[in-house]
Amino acid sequence: MRNTLTADLDRIQQEILDSASIDASDHPQQLSLQGAVRAFDTPPKLRNLAKILEKHEFSDVLHTEQQAPGAAVEWLVLARATVVVYEGFLEELFQRALPLSEDNIYWDQVLRHRGWLGLYLLQTLPQRLWAFSRLLATQAKQQIDATDFTLGTLRNSVSDRTLFRRIAFPHIQGQKAAMANKFISLDTMVKQEVMAKRKGLRGLQGVQARAVGMLATEAKFENADTLQQDVIGLASMLESLSDELCSDPEDLEKSEILDATAVHASASPAGVAQTLIALSTDKIADSRAFYRASASIHSKPSVLTRYWPVGVGLYFSGSTILKFISNRQQAIEEWIRETLETAKSFWQNWVIEPISKIIATIRHDEGSEVALMSRRSLAADMDSLERMVVDFAVDNPEFASTTDLDALKSAAREGDVTPVLIAYEKNIKSPLKNAVTGSLIRSLLIQVQKTKVDVEVAINGIDKLLKSQELVFGFLGVSPALVLLWAGGSWCRRTLGLKKHKMGSTSKIETVKVLRTIERLLTTQREGGKLSYKRRGLILCEVQVLRKYAKRVPSSLRHEFLQDLSDVEEATALKTDAVRQVIARIYRVYTTAHIL
């Protein structure tokens, strides 16, 4: 929108400067103006514009021929200055959009819940009582100063039962006399006041939006031939809008609507320059002051008004809280100490140590291996079994099938203790005799050693299985602690508002509300038609609100989100269907990405 206007002017400037042929001795003023044009390559601040324009002397006569020497350059300087005023004025209007939107949301929330109405009444009660007491004091002073003062006249002047309502609820004064004197419940009066504030706020918002829509729609520079009329028209529009924004919204609805196509064809370059100077120094500032005064009447209560009940509650409960803390100081200190110690132990035992073990496992640190038995236990027992079997075979050669000791060792290592079993089978036939001689007991003890080795082999298999899954067990051990840390950190970020790179639930809700508002504006518009000034301005203002919320969009999608908002701004110049398509795309894309 603003970039398009600047781009068109850049194109026209290039055409004019390329075709300009001016003799420095004949037209030094025009060469000065050419320097002024180039000075606008870096757009100045609005507050500095008057100083730049006052340095140059503009013609008091309107050029009837566009081809007059240097006339195009003169209008080019004014066009650049007009763009500065246009952008400054538009930025001023956009800056008002977010507070107006937030105040609208606040009043909607108050009206939605009865408890909020009661809280609003409590928050504003001191102001109402103060206004009523001031009126009573004023009336009493007037009655006392009167020549016919009596206690009866003073009593009658302050005994009017509708007096408090009219002072405490000023919106009643604008109602008809019959309605003002009619009995109205307190909650109804509060609700009517809130509705009146919201209505006034929306009226103010509508006036601002209509100005934005008119500027966005009618501001254009077509070509070098029409530059003069375009500058005059845009400057006249800016002046008229600044005056319009200093008027009451209700009066504007009753008055004739500004004709955006009307231009002052007789305006001279000097007259346009004076208009731009007045806009940059006074008129925009006056409209800002009028807006602030009007918004203060309808805006949400101040921070002091909203939170004084909390402050009073803390003040009166402060002594009780301090007394409670002082009486339980030792218990509180002990609780804090135990909490810190618990947190420290949790961090050390459930986070640091498991992670250290995982690192040691990855590095194959022998000290970190998981084991169910000693590393050399199986080998020692196996060697012992081999020696037992070999010695038994040497002492009892009749039971051995071979005299090869290596073969016997190999068989024993594989679990084959046949010589011992043969001897056991023979000795068991005469158990008492062989038990006394010791041969039965020897064969039994060798089998016990064999059983021990078998058990250790089984345990060794389980041990190898554990070692193969050692890393898995390490991560399983540290996972609960990491989950607790993540949950606690997320809760702290939500509580303290530290979620910088993710749109919080509140921002999501507000973003959806703004998108819904835009879609409602499109739905109530005639199907396929162009947007009116007011509707286009309202949509553009809501887009500016969305730009504020874009800070909460993840940085990886923020550029795309802002690009989509720019598409909405550009689509408002077309038919409503184009805007609907962009809004539908925003819903579809960012809902899928869980941004909305």
TrEMBL record:
<keyword id="KW-0496">Mitochondrion</keyword>
<keyword id="KW-1133">Transmembrane helix</keyword>
<dbReference type="InterPro" id="IPR013946">
    <property type="entry name" value="NCA2-like"/>
</dbReference>
<protein>
    <submittedName>
        <fullName>ATP synthase regulation protein NCA2-domain-containing protein</fullName>
    </submittedName>
</protein>
<keyword id="KW-0812">Transmembrane</keyword>
<keyword id="KW-0472">Membrane</keyword>
<feature type="transmembrane region" description="Helical">
    <location>
        <begin position="471"/>
        <end position="492"/>
    </location>
</feature>
<dbReference type="GO" id="GO:0005741">
    <property type="term" value="C:mitochondrial outer membrane"/>
</dbReference>
<dbReference type="Pfam" id="PF08637">
    <property type="entry name" value="NCA2"/>
</dbReference>
